[in-house]
Amino acid sequence: MAIAPNLQHRQIAVALEQDPYEVIIGDGSLETLGDALLRIGIQSGRKILLVSNPDVAGPYGEACLNALQKAGFDVELLLIEAGEDQKTLATVAQIHDAAFAQKLERSSLMLALGGGVVGDMTGFAAATWLRGIGVIQVPTTLLAMVDASIGGKTGVNHPGGKNLIGAFHQPRLVLIDPATLATLPIREFRAGLAEVVKYGVLGDPELFELLEQCPHPDHPEGLGRDRLETILERSAAAKAAVVAADEKEGGLRAILNYGHTFGHVVETLCGYGTWLHGEAVAIGMVAVGELAVQRGSWSRAEAERQQQLIKRMQLPTRWPSLEPDAVLQCLQGDKKVRDGRLRFVMPKTIGAVEIRDDITLEEISRTLEALKV
Ligand code: NAD
Ligand code: GLY
Q1: Staple partner for 167: which of 47, 102, 127, 326, CB 3.0–4.6 Å?
Q2: Spacing, Cα 247 to ligand 2 middle (Å)
Q3: 349 close to 302: Cβ distance less than 8 angstroms
Q4: Is 108 within the bounds of a domain?
């Protein structure tokens, strides 16, 4: 039986040569999850290990289970603990144990219902179970909707650093139900907005303007249902386009790290847990904007537009008080250093960035001085 597409929902193609997939976005789409799986050719009766955490399974677990069971899938729910500190191989081992208990086969699937932590770990567990089974991503934070769920980066943290253990493992489907954002703490929502601003600056000036024109861009009700869906759609499309062009981060995909190099410094030196990832990225975008202004490759006016928008989202913009030497040392230890040269994604205009590896330590020191005022 052919299953018709749900025309009420927006769909974005992640046009990979091998195993392309769709991102579906729609209010209430969680209820159609089972049908969406049938539509992409996953047969009814397949086993699915649904992985979530209590904050998310509380409000959405039952709807998710019902949608899958209604379509004839054989589903078990596994709850794992929330939090970045749980993003470890030990938690992945719990997922593997549940996969063993449920007797998951090659044709079975794992499904992540939650934020980026659940998504990254479930993706990694799926990538490694029986040398790789399918995974479905159902993100429930704004950050996971616009970033983590799309693109196939999966993994866990190592005591030596974040996301050091991982694999590329693309999902079979990403289904985004914006209604799930209703229960997301507002601070987490705003942290996700930083990644949306990132897409605007790196390639979508209309998305940036859409955010600028919104009188209250800092909360879901302020954005309104239609505008929120458009923001999700444009962000997902931006990520999908970059991933399709450079799946394994040979070059272009690095532009998705806009704001992340300085952001990583803020996360590391202020201590993980002080700032959420998106908040650190917000500070990082302002800092790299200043670096670009200092070297004359970006206009002060556009840097101020970026800063204003970030401020209106109630996100932090001020560079914290950090020892300049510690900052330089941290930058040199960053994953994004290549052949000993610092690499920065630099804004050129709102809607275009470039990757530069000719930034000197003196320029960084000057920028840090300028950020103090
Ligand atoms: P998160 O997964 O830790 O979720 C944040 C908090 O929100 C958690 O306490 C969670 O339980 C709660 N939550 C989630 N959805 C909720 C909802 N709808 N209602 C109520 N509470 C809800 O944080 P995150 O920001 O989604 O993800 C961060 C992780 O994503 C990091 O580990 C980061 O490394 C990873 N990440 C991965 C990629 C990638 O490409 N794979 C990209 C960016 C970030
Ligand atoms: N979040 C960066 C990437 O997916 O490449």
Answers
A1: 127
A2: 10
A3: yes
A4: yes
Asked whether residue 173 falls in the same domain as residue 215, the answer is no
Grade residue 368 by pLDDT with cuts at 50, 70 and 90.
Answer: very high
Which residues have a Cβ under 8 Å from the Cβ of 141 and sit 6 or more positions away? 114, 115, 116, 181, 184, 188, 189, 192
Q: Which ligand is nearest to the CA of 245?
A: 2
- State whether 238 and 178 are in the same domain: no
Question: Which of these three, 153, 183, 213, is where a domain ends?
Answer: 183
| DSSP structure string for 212-252 | HH-S-TTSHHHH-HHHHHHHHHHHHHHHHHHHHH-TT-SSG
Output the CA torsion 310→147→98→33 (10° steps): 110
CA distance 218 to 10: 23
How many C-beta atoms lie closer than 10 Å to residue 142's C-beta?
A: 28
Asked if residue 70 and residue 123 are part of one domain, the reply reads yes
79 falls within a domain = yes
Q: Are residues 214 and 339 in the same domain?
A: yes
- Domain count across the chain: 2
205 and 259 part of one domain: yes
Based on the fold, state whether residues 131 and 38 are members of the same structural domain.
Answer: yes
pLDDT at 72 over 70: yes
The answer to whether the CB of 280 falls within 8 A of the CB of 84 is no
Q: Please indicate, yes or no, whether residues 315 and 219 belong to a single structural domain of this protein.
A: yes
Ligand nearest to the backbone CA of 280: 1
Tell me, yes or no, whether 229 lies in a domain.
yes
For ligand 2, atom 3, name the residue with the nearest CA: 256
Q: Choose among 361, 370, 353: nearest CA to 330.
A: 361
More confident position, 271 or 78 = 78
Range of the domain at 164: 10-183
Assigned domain for 157 exists: yes
Q: Is the CB of 253 under 6 A from ligand 2?
A: yes
The span from the CA of 184 to the CA of 145, in Å, is 12
* Ligand 1 close to Cβ of residue 47 (< 6 A): no
Rounded to two decimals, the pTM is 0.96
Q: What is the pLDDT of residues 158-202, one digit of tens each?
A: 988 889 999 999 999 999 999 999 999 999 999 999 999 999 999
Could you write out the DSSP letters of every residue in 279-302?
HHHHHHHHHHHHHHHHTTSS-HHH
Q: Which atom of ligand 2 is nearest to the CA of 147?
A: 1
Length of the chain: 373
Confirm or reject: Cβ of 27 under 6 Å from ligand 1: no
